[in-house]
Amino acid sequence: MQALDLPRPVAFVLGGGGSLGALQIGMLRALDEVGVTPDLVVGTSVGSLNAAVLALPGGSRLERLRDIWAHMTRAEAFPGGVLSQVRTLRHSKTHLFPNTGLAKIIDDHLGPGRHFEDLALPLGVVTTDVETASPVLVRSGLLKAPLLASCAIPGIYPPVEHEGRQLYDGGLVANVPMRQALSMGAKSLVVLDCAFPGKMPGAPRTFAEVMMFTAMISMRNQAVLEAPIAAREAPVVYLPGPAPVRVSPLDFSRTDELAAEAYTSALDHVKELTIDGPGLYGAPGLLVP
After folding, report:
1. Which of 108, 151, 202, 220 is the most exposed place for a label (fewest CB within 10 A)?
2. Which entry of 169, 193, 248, 265 is annotated as an active-site residue?
3. What is the DSSP pairing of strand 123-129 with strand 165-169?
4. For residues 196 and 144, is the Cβ–Cβ distance under 8 A?
5. Terminal alpha carbon distance of the chain
6. In a 3-state reduction of DSSP, which class is residue 260?
């Protein structure tokens, strides 16, 4: 199977979506099979964590990512039950969960004290400046704080202070950071969006699910608007997700299923593609009622 003829540098753009980040494992497997590799990676929220692992030096990065997701649990990412959430909210006034579990995930799999400069690929991590409500692209220094900030969904996690700024989840303003990838010098974009295939299993039943549901709607609409704009400058290969499934972005129990379905849909898409200059090759999906 012939690899796609994409102008280089090629950026992998990894969007946010909570536990739906498992879809990116299947998408990456499909890209690997057709020989599409990144020259740089940029991510938001859970996509920034996956992107950071892809940027690590050494081989078997996809295997490393699979192993991380195989052992990921809700209790690890969102520690504490309902009573604990109430206590955290009462104490903090701003969020339901501490980011200690997320910090441990970063330390365990990227290594404490890891810097952007230690990575094998250029990495961009997208966050939101609380004061200006504008995107902040972080590309240097220690990895941990920017990654925590990129995942800090308001109401779910606390904001993170970094270099004199209070930062929240980049998904508020750039969940699929295509413009940021172009600003890093990319001449082609391969977009791994994981927000659209999720469909809440009924109406949100907890405050945490309400917050995540609200964030997912914002994420979806951003991508629909941003993709055609980026496609005017460069080829944008927008990988399709599988058919929408009823799964909460807080539910980590269906990782294998999501990855397998995303692999099939992504592979079917890319093996039929012919790239002919700037344009949108694929399109953002939509949450269906």
Report:
1. 202
2. 169
3. antiparallel
4. no
5. 37
6. helix
**Strand (E) or helix (H) holding 144:** helix 144-150
169 is catalytic: yes
Of the residues 19, 45, 188, 265, only one is catalytic, namely 45
pLDDT < 70 regions, the chain: 1-3, 79-86, 88-89, 92-95, 196-220, 285-289
| Residues 21-49: tens digit of each pLDDT | 999 999 999 999 999 999 999 999 999 99
Helices 23-33 & 255-270 angle (0-180, nearest 10):
40
Residue 20 token pair = 């739906």
Report CA torsion sign: 147, 151, 152, 157: negative
Residue count of the chain, please give it. 289
Backbone angles phi, psi at 124, to 5 degrees: -115, 130
Check: CB of residue 169 under 8 Å from CB of residue 216.
no
Which residues, 6+ apart, have CB-to-CB distance to 69 below 8 Å?
21, 22, 25, 255, 259
Tokens of 111: 């290594």
State the residue for tokens 């753009």. 13
Maximum CA pair distance of the chain?
56
Instruction: Tell me, yes or no, if 107 is annotated catalytic.
Output: no
